[in-house]
Amino acid sequence: MNFYKTNFYFVFLFLGALATLTPELSQAQSCLNGQAFTCFDQEDADKVFTDLTSAFAPTTVSGASSLGKIYGVELGLIVSASRAPNTQEVIDSYGSDFEIPGIPMAGISGIVTLPFGIGVESTFVPKVDLGDDGSFESFNIGARWTITDVFPMGLLKVAVRTSLIKSKATFNYEEEGTVLGTVNESAEFDVEVFEVGAAIGLNFRVVEPYIGASDLQARGSVFAQGTSSNNVPIDDVDQSAEAQGLRVYGGVLFKLPLFRIGAEVAQFDDVERASVKFAFKF
Predict the structure, then answer these.
(1) Rounded distance between C-alpha atoms, residue 269 and residue 185, angstroms
(2) pLDDT tens-digit profile of 69-110?
(3) Which of 8, 67, 166, 253 has the lowest tally of Cβ within 10 angstroms?
(4) Pseudo-torsion of CA 275, 173, 171, 44, nearest 10°?
């Protein structure tokens, strides 16, 4: 669990970067010094949501092949990093020179394939409690079918897949303001992504390069509320956002006797993400 806590402190640094911009916020918007998430407007929410959709989009870093003619099981770890250009644009609009390096992600992945190429796949991040800072959790479940297990095409492998992922992050923030006094804010980010797509690969036994494309339909929300030690009213923020578009990806999977090592790059709405996987195959 320490690994997850270390990783997701970086996720909260990403969210926290928005909260640390309070002096610029008070100049760029009608917000008082000390406010952060309670200053979010719809345009800000849409931009940040696009980056979160790319970061949280489903992936098991796997090609189109099934894990065996009869059955197969794979269990591993996936680590990803996604760019955040839209969030950077929000930060720049506040007049800050802070730079977001990216959004990291890590999770446990699992794949089970059965006869006729039918399979299920999942990525899972157990709830990470960061104490007073907040928490994070994510779960993805999907189905896949390797068509070429039923209709062979030699080295060429073709698969269709669908996935649903739900992620939630909570963030708590405290700041001293000139008018508000001590400001305590809490924010909750919810992201839900549904994916339908296909992948093709070339199975060379020990290595499989692959490419794929999928339609992403995502929706999410951010709810923030705050209190002031000087009893100045702070309005709640309740913003929702939606995104839909084509995600394209490509990668390579190395197939050792008991291991799988893979790397993948993906793009959604001009936002890139890179992922690597190390897994055991049974």
Answers:
(1) 31
(2) 899 999 999 999 888 888 788 767 755 566 767 777 888 999
(3) 166
(4) -70
Q: Would you tell me the crossing angle of helices 2-19 and 85-93 to the nearest 10 degrees?
A: 40
Give the whole-angstrom CA distance, residue 86 versus residue 101. Answer: 12
Treating both helix axes as pointing N-terminal to C-terminal, what angle do 85-93 and 42-56 enclose, rounded to 10 degrees?
150
User: Please, how many CA atoms are within 13 Å of residue 221, restricted to the half-sphere of its CB?
Assistant: 7
Nearest to 201 by CA among 56, 57, 61, 70: 61
What DSSP line would sit under 215-279, residue for residue? EEEEEEEEEEEEEETT------EEEEEEEEEEEEEEEEEEE-SSEEEEEEEEEETTEEEEEEEEE
Residue 86 · residue 14 · CB < 8 Å = no
Integer angstrom CA distances of residue 279 from 79, 192, 253, 267, 275 = 12, 26, 11, 23, 13
- Residues of the chain with pLDDT below 50 are 1-14, 16-30, 32, 34
- Say if CB 130 and CB 5 are below 8 A apart: yes
The DSSP output letter for 250 is E
Cα 201 from Cα 190, distance rounded (Å): 33
Distance of alpha carbon 122 from alpha carbon 112, whole angstroms: 9
Q: What's the pLDDT score for residue 97?
A: 63
Report H helices in the chain: 2-19, 22-28, 42-56, 85-93
* Residue 51 confidence (pLDDT): 85
Q: What is the pLDDT of residue 236?
A: 77
CB atoms within 10 A of CB 234: 20
Nearest by Cα to 172 from 1, 15, 3 = 15
Q: H/E element holding 252? A: strand 237-255
CB 60 within 8 A of CB 277: yes
Of 103, 93, 106, nearest to 41 by C-alpha is 93
Structure tokens at 242: 């939606």
What tokens does 214 get?
């999928």
